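step=encode ok
step=design start
structure_in=
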């Protein structure tokens, strides 16, 4: 199942370290079949607030996503970004192609009923 590395990066002033990070990141992703889906695009905020930029990278599975993040090649360049651009990064699995939110609602409803019955 596809796993996404999602970064919410705070506003920052680009500098030479940031440029070097951006120039080198693709080479760190290639061995793990990572590809950018979104890379620093401006967002349209339709609810709440969202300061900063978003980056979304897709990997074929969680193992490759974690291997990329932990790889010596990525860890070598990571400080170039973290010294200059604060942010949050998560790895999250995508929903399967046949995912139906109605099934999730039904399972949540059943669990809530069981919990209510257990505490009654």
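sequence_out=
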């Amino acid at each position: 199942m596809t796993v996404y590395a999602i970064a919410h990066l705070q506003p920052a002033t680009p500098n030479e370290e940031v440029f070097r990070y951006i120039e080198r990141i693709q080479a760190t992703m290639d061995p793990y079949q990572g590809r950018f889906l979104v890379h620093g695009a401006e967002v349209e905020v339709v609810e709440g607030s969202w300061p900063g930029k978003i980056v979304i990278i897709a990997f074929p599975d969680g193992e490759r996503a974690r291997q990329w993040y932990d790889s010596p090649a990525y860890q070598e360049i990571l400080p170039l970004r973290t010294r200059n651009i604060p942010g949050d990064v998560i790895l999250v699995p995508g929903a399967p192609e046949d995912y139906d939110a109605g099934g999730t609602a039904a399972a949540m409803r059943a669990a809530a009923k069981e919990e209510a019955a257990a505490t009654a």
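step=design ok
step=annotate ok -> The radius of gyration is 19 Å.
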